[in-house]
Design goal:
The complex is a heterodimer.
Chain A (H helix, E strand, L loop, with lengths): L2 E6 L5 H10 L5 E7 L2 E7 L9 H22 L1
Antiparallel strand pairs in A: 1-3, 2-3
Helix pairs in contact in A: 1-2
Chain B lengths: L15 E3 L4 E6 L5 H11 L3 E9 L2 E8 L7 H27 L1 H13 L1 H21 L19
Antiparallel strand pairs in B: 1-2, 2-4, 3-4
Helix pairs in contact in B: 1-2, 3-4
The chains are: A alpha+beta, B alpha+beta.
Chain lengths: 76, 155
């Protein structure tokens, strides 16, 4: 099963989405594309053990990284 | 909160859509700044799967899906959306209070660390302590009669 997720760059940081993709890279084949205003993740070959929640977890990870990195930047 | 049109339908409300396991709603960035949305989302990350979408300029779509494996009812989703909306409001208020009091906070921090007045008050306290000690013993030398007898001897 293949999934495509569009992360708007006006909400999600590019480096945060990349960090999330890297974190889950061992559980699926993830390809990153830069579209206009979006970072697009194409996800294939998802490990069956986590196929029901990988996409959701990856989205959470990207959001968490975005918030954490934005706050860290604001503090400096 | 719900989609039903009530007698106060002319008031702007946070309307939401719910399917079997997910609830979503549109948040206007003019009312709820992005940092407030981030703040609320950050607090829900351990309980929900979240996704933020951009349906149009100045609007963010928030999608929430409970992580719990148990049955998800309409009431659960309704409560979740309500909690998130409350947290959004809380975050906005926190931000506004933070912004409004930033100058005074910075002033007090600077004064506490670098102000002449605070330094002199610490010096005064130290001087007071020294004075008390000197009153008790001018030489500040420990003497045996001040310590309790250890061998039971003495008068």
């Amino acid at each position: 099963m293949a999934e495509t997720i569009n992360f708007s760059t006006s909400i999600y940081r590019n480096d945060a989405v990349q960090a999330a993709a890297q974190a889950y890279g061992h559980l699926a084949k993830i390809r990153i594309e830069a579209d206009e205003g979006n970072v697009v993740l194409h996800i294939e070959d998802i490990d069956e053990r986590v196929s029901d929640r990988l996409v959701d977890a990856l989205c959470n990870h990207a959001l968490y990284e975005t918030v954490a990195r934005t706050r860290a930047e604001d503090r400096t | 909160m719900s989609e039903e049109v009530g007698p106060q339908a002319d008031l702007e409300e946070l309307t939401y859509r719910a399917d079997e396991r997910r609830v979503s709603f549109i948040v206007d960035e003019e009312i709820y700044p992005r940092d407030a949305i981030y703040g609320a989302a950050y607090l829900f990350v351990d309980r929900c799967y979240l996704f933020l979408g951009r349906p149009s300029d100045r609007q963010i779509e928030v999608r929430l899906k409970p992580k719990s494996a148990g049955e998800v009812t309409d009431a659960t989703l309704d409560a979740l959306a309500g909690e998130f909306a409350n947290e959004l409001l809380n975050q906005v208020v926190r931000q506004r209070v933070g912004d409004a009091t930033r100058d005074i906070r910075e002033y007090y921090m600077a004064r506490a660390f670098f102000g002449e007045e605070s330094r002199s008050s610490i010096d005064a306290l130290l001087a007071e302590l020294d004075a008390e000690e000197l009153e008790e013993d001018e030489l500040e030398v420990s003497v045996p009669w001040d310590s309790p007898a250890e061998d039971g001897a003495g008068g």
